[in-house]
Amino acid sequence: MQTIPVKASKSYNVHVGSKLLPTLGERLADLLPPPRHLLLVTDDTVAALYADTAADALEKAGYTVTRFVFASGEASKSTATLLRLWDKMAEVGLSRTDAVIALGGGVVGDLSGFAAATYLRGIACYMVPTTLLAMVDSAVGGKTAVDLTAGKNLCGVFAQPIGVLCDTDTLKTLPPEIFADGCAEVIKYGYIGDKELLCLLETPFDRAPERVIARCVDQKRSLVERDEQDGGCRQLLNLGHTGGHAVELLSSYSISHGRAVAIGMMLAARAAAALRLCEKGLPMHVENMLKRYHLPTECPYTARDLAEAALRDKKRRGDTLTLVLPRALGESVLYPIEITALERIFALGGAL
Ligand code: NAD
Ligand code: GLY
């Protein structure tokens, strides 16, 4: 097991390793000694696989556990599910010393984190991510949110969890396409700031993911510690996301987030080479890496459509937008532009 201590506005540990879920009760007891009431929040897919193991571990440690299970999928990251979750918290009488356990992917984590941060003006939330994406990204760093009809993640708060437990054995039940989506985020960490990770990724890591996940978490730790509120270097985590969000939107979400981010990284790498910001060979390195993990590399949309869709995204600040472009293997930079330049940059990046 590897433990990464995060020292943000609140400090907590991220544990990464095999056979950790059955130890959930002991880990939590170190932070919030029982007896207490816990609300175990999860989706129906994850509930069928892991809710019993998690609940048993917690009950054995002396906690009272109530489950809240919702339908899996992004559609559940809604104000409707949030209202039901708040009502459940009140119905079972969770108090300020009780806690929420978020068992699942990024949807469970974002929704549970937001509900916990707002119920009684904030109770503790412990994250138990079960997708690769959630382990390397969403469970760490304190971004919580629900989607509104107008767009994804439009309503949320920053609220750090009290701890994160990544049991890598849970990844064995992930459908391959969902694992591949997480791989896009893992690859992203390599190009943002970890050349050695790029070397590790030359060999597929699915059978021994601990070291790779821990490296990603450590990089996220470093960015969050320096810029918790996302005004500066944390924005490097958006590599591939300006183009990626536009691709997701234009496909009406039929292209998944990870695949869209892969296309977005490719656009960013080709644009960076065209702008002579990085060496000529970098786009080919990115392309080979993405193909190794069965991720797409070609953008099916025009530069104009991409720019129009990207400008609907919440990351725009007035008339400027900060892109993330790779500068070298294992190094990316923030690249502020006028929004009027975006279409040209997507065209340089190889959009239709
Ligand atoms: P998800 O939570 O929808 O999980 C994907 C699917 O995998 C679901 O159907 C789920 O039921 C299933 N699943 C989860 N764990 C499983 C397991 N171990 N075995 C089998 N099936 C399993 O999606 P995700 O990709 O984990 O997360 C995406 C969400 O994360 C988006 O809403 C995105 O906005 C959010 N996100 C948040 C942050 C952040 O910083 N808070 C960062 C990145 C993404
Ligand atoms: N996933 C982007 C961030 O946490 O900032």
What does this structure look like?
- The relative contact order is 0.11.
- It contains 13 helices and 11 strands.
- The protein has 2 domains: 2-173, Rossmann fold (3-Layer(aba) Sandwich), CATH 3.40.50.1970; 179-348, Dehydroquinate synthase-like, alpha domain.
- It has 352 residues and is α/β, with parallel strands linked by helices.
- It is 43% helix and 21% strand.
- Helix 1 (24-31) crosses helix 2 (44-60), helix 5 runs parallel beside helix 8 and helix 9 crosses helix 10.
- It starts with a strand and ends with a helix.
- The chain has a 7-stranded mixed β-sheet with strand order 1-2-9-6-5-3-4, with helices on both faces. Strands 7-8 form a two-stranded antiparallel ribbon.
- The longest helix has 18 residues, at 176-193.
- The protein has helices at 24-31, 44-60, 79-91, 106-118, 132-138, 176-193, 195-200, 210-226, 241-250, 257-274, 282-292, 303-310, 342-348, and strands spanning 2-7, 11-17, 37-43, 64-70, 99-104, 124-129, 143-148, 151-158, 163-167, 320-328, 331-338.
- Glycine (GLY) is lined by residues 137, 141, 143, 230, 234, 237.
Q: What value does the average pLDDT take? A: 96
CATH topology of the largest domain: Rossmann fold
N-C termini distance: 46 Å
Based on the structure given, which CATH architecture of the largest domain is correct?
3-Layer(aba) Sandwich
**Share in β-strands:** 15-25%
Write the H/E string, N to C: EEHEHEHEHEHEEEHHHHHHHEEH
Radius of gyration from CA coordinates: 20 Å
Number of strands: 11
CATH class of the largest domain: Alpha Beta
Shape: globular
What small molecules accompany the polymer chains? nicotinamide-adenine-dinucleotide, glycine
* Strands ordered across the widest β-sheet: 1-2-9-6-5-3-4
Largest sheet: 7 strands, mixed
User: What is the structural class?
Assistant: alpha/beta
Task: Please bin the fraction of helical residues.
Answer: 40-55%
Count of all domains = 2
**What is the count of helical runs?**
13
Question: Poorly predicted ranges (pLDDT <50, ≥5 residues)?
Answer: none
